[in-house]
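Chain A, query sequence.
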Amino acid sequence: MNEEQRLLFAIAATYLRRKRKRRSVWIHGTIRARSQHGEYHRLVQELRLDEVRFQQYFRLDRTQFDVLLRRVGPLIAKENTNYRRAISPGERLAICLRFLATGDSYRTIAFSYRVGHSTVAGIVAEVAKAIWDSLVEEYMPVPTTEDWREIAAEFYHRWNFPNCVGSIDGKHVVIQAPNNSGSLFYNYKGTYSIVLLAVVDAKYCFRIIDVGSYGKSSDGGTLANSPFGNALRRVTLGLPEDTLLPGAEHLGPQPYVFVADEAFPLRRDLMRPFPGTTLPSRHRVFNYRLSRARLTVENAFGILAAQWRMYRRVIGISPSNAETCVKATCVLHNFLRRTTRAVSYVGDGEASGLHDISQVGSNNAAREAMRVRETLVNYFSAEGAVPWQPQA
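Chain A, predicted structure.
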């Protein structure tokens, strides 16, 4: 660079510096008063005196909030600087939980807590990841062979479906259309979404989740492209060996299976209902018994959306941050299910009538998968029958 070029560069740099808008204040007055008037320092501290309202505000009671804070605190703590005092781990956790519980915009939460909206964006992403990292090993570990056996025992005890190790379904999480994404996130419902694929046990807890598939993907396609689907195809999930159905030794050992709706393929280890509306009685009974067991995943999604209202809104953040928040709510769901004293199991007990199964196209199911399904049909019509299943 010669002398003339250096001079032109210096002139241009000086011009740009002068043109750049200067901050009127380093910290806005409303933010400076956070410790006196911010929602965490006023309202939240008052709510600690009222257990019910505290739980309504955060979806966690005081004990659960404090336990969670002890877990994530070391991961989200920041150091004070010469310029400003760091936001405490408790306040950072409160901001994140409030976003998950309401789905309010970053700017709305920023005004309530008297912080910058960009600060809220950073806090939500960081704390949601910390929640997942700190809870997943205890509250959503990869099931072992013994875990699969325990899940199957619970399904048989609560839902009268033997050898069932989980209920599978996908949920579209509506997000704001990402820039330059085309139709990748556009789903059949006419919204933009990422997909939450979940395996749920008999107690409505998430055992395996896969988050982030494009909204345009079908449930079957999402399963096929997920790590869980790959493990299912490669027989590396650690499922127990085939075992006898209760009271039906003559049928021989049968595989452990997942249950799903008609959007998923029929496999030896994945049962779906019979297609069609005009079915023999035996097939209708099978569809009812399968649908009854499959309701666990539907109920889990309903509980999840009722607790964390971000699912009731269009999530206006990037797909990657939305994925992080979804994972955080799923592991928090398990945390709450296992640490709340009184938990009700929707759907336990006798059911009334057969569930209507919508008509679907035929599939190329393997003979072995069809044999397993037919064996379950025979079982539900004989040794495994329950008193209320003939009701139409």
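The two ends are 87 Å apart (CA to CA). The chain has two domains: 22-139, 145-307+364-380.
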